[in-house]
Design brief:
By secondary structure, the protein is an alpha+beta fold. It has two domains: 82 residues, no CATH class; 237 residues, no CATH class. The chain has 13 helices and six strands. The strands form two sheets. It has a four-stranded mixed β-sheet with strand order 1-3-4-2. A two-stranded antiparallel sheet has the order 5-6. The chain is globular. The C terminus is likely disordered.
Length: 337
Amino acid sequence: MSQAAVEKHMRAECFLLYNVLYDGVVDCSNSLEDEDEVELPPQAAVLSAFQPDCYGHAVSVKEWFVFPGNPLQEPTRVTPKPLNYTKGPPDLMALWFRTDPDVKTIQASTLLDVFDLYEFTEELKQFDSPVIAVICLVTYIAIQTRQLSLEDVDAYLSQAVCVRFKSFTEMQQLRTSVVDPRAVQLGSLFVRGLTYLIAANSACGYPFPMGELMPWKTFDGLLFHSKYLQAHSGSPKEELLEGNPSWISLFLSVRDLVLGACRRRGAPVQSQPRRLQYRDAWPVEVDDLRGESRPQLHHTTQQPTASAHYQQGYRPRHPKRGRYQLAPRWPKSQNTD
């Protein structure tokens, strides 16, 4: 088993499990997080699958997680949270090396149990791997943070539906006129969460093809930013899904599953539109996500106006805070089918 973990690690797979097996360590740094954003918890708190070990359990790991107030002078000793439906600890030998026809079902149900979505095993069979990945991750984030609004969920899910059908040329032509720091943080959280979902998929024996979970199949930061601005400005679902009936149907099916799972776990998602006012965001003047020099960028879809109502919960940006320097996006596959 240890040798198999080494081989997976050398193929850039199973990084999380390798660290746990060999060093008994798990870590999570911060990335793009807004220090003025007090509603959203840090990424490390959202993505932790462990709980403090207060009882001296034999199986525990050292956790190095970066978040405000943690001096990182010594690790926290934590123990994994038990799975709810899997009977006993998962058998890695079976998950990794069994080849019989039933193993895929076991692998998939174990992965869903990791994200506490075991009861949706049958419902999720109607979707393909990238959509299942998004359902798992958005539901997990919504339950863990308890701070996602209905508009945030709509932005996550609408971009996940649209990105599947966008050509490379269409993605290159995307523009947005402002940068909302909260949207940047939510986008960063999703991509970080995706790395953990990929690690869990590897640990469960690859119930889903690794290539189906890559960001160019599930997430685009600029497209998400566009949908976020639309959703929070009150755009109807038809506009979010660009008037395509089949996209709208897929979106509504996925949305019902996510919201239903959140309600069952005592974390109902409420509508909380944050109508963006330009003094709370930064105009994109020079660098877009491809690092090109351009004049003021504009998006072709409806955007909030400068006269939008300043709602409670939106804080003016700190006068000494600068703009985000937008980094290159994930490379887009040239296959546009």
